[in-house]
Design a protein that fits this description.
Blueprint lengths: L13 E6 L8 E5 L1 H4 L3 E5 L5 E5 L11 E4 L4 E6 L1 E8 L3 H12 L6 E3 L2 E5 L2 H9 L3 E8 L18
Parallel strand pairs: 1-4, 2-6
Antiparallel strand pairs: 1-5, 3-4, 5-6, 7-9, 7-10, 8-9
């Protein structure tokens, strides 16, 4: 849940400022959608009603299973929230490869599996998937798409 809380720390707001140790036992858990996990500044409410302010380095993305540390030392486990997804299944590798090419060419976040591709539900993309010969199923499930070819690459040089 997004709220209008200020991002400043208050007596009741937990402020996340860094990634935590993934081996640490979490004090708290928060389910976040794919869109929320892409943001470096975000206000959320934990299940117990505690406000949480996320303030990470710009461009830092979270995955389900990431852990965060608050300024007061608490560890927060990020879970990928269930979202409305389309699961497009191919009968063979060629149909699957063509579908991944055409869907990826639309710069959609995709979770690619063996003869399967998942994406955030969209009726226009569903129609394309059907035209490409895929079978569709709609589910509510966590979404953890591919990071992309340049994930983690923060800088490069053009001095060729």
């Amino acid at each position: 849940m997004t709220t209008s809380l200020p991002l400043e720390e208050s007596a009741t707001t937990l402020v996340v400022t860094e990634r935590g140790d993934s081996g640490a036992r979490p004090d708290l858990c928060i389910a976040m959608t794919y869109e929320q996990r892409q943001r470096s500044r975000l206000r959320l409410i934990l299940a117990d009603g505690t406000p949480l302010a996320l303030m990470l380095a710009r461009g830092e993305r979270l995955l389900g299973g990431s852990t965060l540390r608050t300024r007061c030392g608490k560890t927060v486990l990020v879970e990928a929230a269930a979202e409305p997804l389309s699961v497009a299944t191919a009968d063979n590798a060629l149909v699957h490869a063509r579908a991944c090419y055409h869907l990826g060419n639309r710069h959609l976040p995709l979770a690619i599996g063996s003869l399967e591709v998942r994406y955030l539900r969209d009726h226009v993309i569903d129609a394309l998937a059907l035209r490409l010969g895929l079978k569709l199923e709609h589910v509510d499930a966590p979404f953890q798409p591919e990071d992309g070819a340049y994930a983690g690459a923060h800088a490069h040089s053009h001095g060729h």
